[in-house]
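Hi R.,

Here's the input for the flavin-adenine dinucleotide complex you asked about:
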Amino acid sequence: MRIIVSIKGVPKLETVKVDPETHTLRRESAELMLNPFDRSALEIAARLKEKYHAEVIAISMGPPNVIPLLREAYSICADRIILLSDRAFAGADTLATSRVLAQAIKKLAPFDLVLMGLKSADGETAQVPPETAALLGIPSITNVKDLFFEDKKIIALRETEYGLEELEAEPPIVASLYPKLDYFRPPSFKRLLEVKNRELEIWSAKDLELSIEKLGLSGSPTRVSGVFEKKFADKGEIWEGEPEELAKRLITLLKEKGFLKA
Ligand SMILES: Cc1cc2nc3c(=O)[nH]c(=O)nc-3n(C[C@H](O)[C@H](O)[C@H](O)COP(=O)(O)OP(=O)(O)OC[C@H]3O[C@@H](n4cnc5c(N)ncnc54)[C@H](O)[C@@H]3O)c2cc1C
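And here is the predicted structure with flavin-adenine dinucleotide in place:
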């Protein structure tokens, strides 16, 4: 059994700076971390690996600063890690991203399962998993809490607004995960040291046999028509003074607003 986990590096919130002129994120100054949903996907992959003796391959599309995250994936459960990196991938929207991921996944066939996070913490579109499945021509199951194999079929438990749905599918499928896990195995220090001295597999646009016009900014139909900062109409007030005086002031205000009867 082969499981592919697709992981994304997202900026650590506390290191993100916003450009005051353009209001866009200054990504180059931000430190990266594993997208939290993808950390869960790795834990699920580790559990499936233990249960079914599966092979786990982790892939990520991004610049070389995602390499430590792929190494983290190796230290958790991956047997093989592959970075998908090329200048031609820069500026990709979800479709151009999915094209690269789908082509890499095709190259890794035969596979039984592709695990992704439900959504990323920065882009947050949740489009990449179903788009990748569509490009691969295989089923997509989103919002999966848990999944297992039974009689060569995949059983996925999917959370909906009405309750838990149980879906059955023939492998291979793409599942986007939203599990509520109470335990994450820690990365293995031994495996971290092992992977540090290994040469990393890096696949470029040429390796993936993808034509440049379908990639990056030129292959992205999404256009950002404007970026603006959210303004709060009511800024709030801070009152200072003695508690009794403040309480009287609050009662007067509540009466004025009609929340208390005069
Ligand atoms: C309107 C708009 C404009 C954008 N413009 C730009 C731009 O100009 N330049 C730019 O660099 N980015 C841009 N982005 C960001 C870029 O589109 C996303 O980083 C990328 O397409 C992934 O989409 P997402 O973050 O919404 O992923 P989601 O669909 O929310 O992610 C779900 C899952 O898909 C998988 N996944 C997503 N991305 C990757 C990845 N790179 N590698 C491996 N797995 C992955 C992960 O498992 C993840 O948990 C833009 C995004 C939007 C919405």
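One thing worth noting: The radius of gyration is 23 Å.

Cheers,
M.
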